[in-house]
Design brief:
The structure is a single chain. The chain is α/β, with parallel strands linked by helices and about 475 residues long. Helix content is about 50%, strand content about 10%. The protein has 19 helices and 14 strands. The strands form 4 sheets. Strands 2-1-3-4-5 form a 5-stranded parallel β-sheet, with helices on both faces. Helix 4 links the parallel strand 4 and strand 5. The radius of gyration is 30 Å and the shape is extended.
């Protein structure tokens, strides 16, 4: 059901339209001219206006112009007895949703109204998605009080004014994609797309076609040409996360694309110009990768034109409580008016090392919101999975492992270690991989060997079931 305002100086037309639209399930209001319509529009949330064109005082065209200027957000369907091609074109050019001629048929009115309401729903959804993008790009990026993050924000503002390639470094979960999105929104490319790609999440044999695209027939199953991320991000920003996981072969092609500002699709001979800003991120030390030969030195210097290092959460504890407040608002929870957390909970949150950083903090708050009762401040009991102040992590002994005489179940041992790493990091695979001294790609391979197609889910479920017992 929609709320529809009928504007016409003929009462019988208003009554006729009200009968039609009421029978269709809509709530109908009436106004005898444009000025009276504006008064109602200011008081009532109207979804659609059905208006005559020729009226004394303020005609339909003037009413439409006022609706647009005041950004009232409701489409207008015109109904008129004086129809000609020129007036219809003028109405549509000014932004009318539809144009009907008297005498009209009921089905034509209902169809025009439903089309206009469908357009309004699309506009509302588009506005909602734009708001989500805005919040994602600037919300978390502005939640800080620490000097370290103030410096990050300053560097991001500086580099946003240029087209320089940016390399974001820092542990997993520190907000590298959030900062990348912020740079994009603050740049001259803000009206273009922000295209994100995680290099570690795509199989190595598909990386090149994802980045550079492919031509029809390039390989089995390539039944049509497909543009890659560089083409899709034209006019905007391409964000490549976990760039350290890129295979050497793909690194060489990426280097050439950056140098020549041209891309060649897989299986093709054409060279297409690229016009996107490149931002890369990694939680690995690319300098060490260069020394080990796993990352090209020439590519490293091409990417590190403007490096920004994001500090881990444990090095900016001043930001923890603002982030807790922000995450509560993000999850739709009521934020306490006075005390956000008890002193004991504050001590716990600020002493924990947060291996998963901001992402882990958000997960902890979401879990606490699900489990807690009441709307008071958080207590230390709301975070039972966090390490208590003064507790120390278990340290693996440096003595060589001694194999028992009867041997061991090696797969079970691996599974137990993986389970502990996921427990420690609350399911964050990147952080769990670091605890075991593995790259994320190798950790995912290990998960696949232990748990099949969806190993991480299986292991986490087993862990939670064990806790319930």
């Amino acid at each position: 059901m929609a709320q529809i305002l009928i504007v016409d100086d003929e009462e019988k037309i208003r009554i006729l339209l009200e009968m039609m639209l009421s029978e269709a399930g809509h709530q109908v209001f009436q106004a005898e001219n444009g000025l009276a319509a504006l008064e109602q529009l200011e008081k009532i949330p109207i979804d659609l206006v059905v208006s005559d064109v020729c009226m004394d005082g303020m005609d339909g065209f003037a009413l439409l112009e006022q609706i647009r200027q005041r950004e009232l957000g409701c489409p207008v369907v015109f109904v008129t007895a004086f129809a000609n091609l020129e007036s219809a074109v003028d109405a549509l050019r000014l932004g009318a949703a539809d144009y009907l001629v008297k005498p009209f048929q009921e089905e034509d009115v209902i169809l025009a109204v439903e089309r206009a309401l469908g357009r309004r729903r699309l506009l509302a959804e588009n506005q909602r998605l734009r708001q989500q993008v805005h919040e994602k790009g600037e919300g978390e990026a502005g939640v800080f009080v620490s000097p370290r993050m103030l410096q990050v924000r300053h560097l991001a503002d500086k580099v946003a004014a240029s087209d320089a390639t940016v390399l974001l470094t820092g542990e997993s979960g520190t907000g590298k994609e959030v900062v990348a999105n912020y740079i994009h929104k603050a740049s001259k490319r803000c009206k273009g797309r922000f295209v994100a790609m995680n290099c570690a999440a795509i199989p190595s044999d598909l990386l090149e076609t994802e980045l550079f695209g492919h031509e029809k027939g390039a390989f089995t199953g390539a039944d049509r040409e497909r543009p890659g991320k560089f083409e899709y991000a034209a006019g905007g920003t391409l964000f490549l996360d976990e760039i350290g996981e890129l295979p050497l072969e793909a690194q060489a092609k990426l280097l050439r694309t950056i140098q020549e500002k041209r891309v060649q699709r897989l299986g093709g001979n054409r060279e297409l110009e690229t016009n996107c800003r490149l931002i890369c991120a990694t939680n690995r030390d690319l300098g060490t990768g260069v020394q080990k030969g796993t990352f090209r030195e020439d590519l490293y210097y091409r990417l590190a034109v403007f490096p920004i290092d994001l500090p881990p959460l444990r090095e900016r504890v001043e930001d923890i409580l603002p982030l807790v407040r922000y995450s509560m608002e993000k999850f739709g929870a009521r934020v306490p008016d006075k005390e956000l957390v008890t002193p004991a909970a504050k001590a716990l949150l600020e002493s924990y090392r947060w291996p998963g950083n901001v992402r882990e903090l958000f997960n902890a708050v979401e879990r606490a919101l699900i489990m807690r009762t009441g709307n008071g401040p958080f207590t230390s009991d709301d975070f039972p999975y966090l390490e208590r102040p003064g507790e120390k992590l278990q340290v693996v002994q440096s003595d060589p492992f001694v194999l028992p005489p009867d041997g061991i179940d090696f797969e079970e041992l691996q599974l137990n270690i993986v389970r502990q790493s996921l427990e420690r990091t609350m399911g964050n695979q990147s952080a769990a991989a670091r605890l075991l001294g593995l790259s994320r790609a190798k950790f995912r391979t290990l998960l696949g060997q232990l748990g099949g197609e969806e190993p991480s889910s299986r292991i986490v479920i087993q862990f939670h079931r064990g806790r319930q017992g």
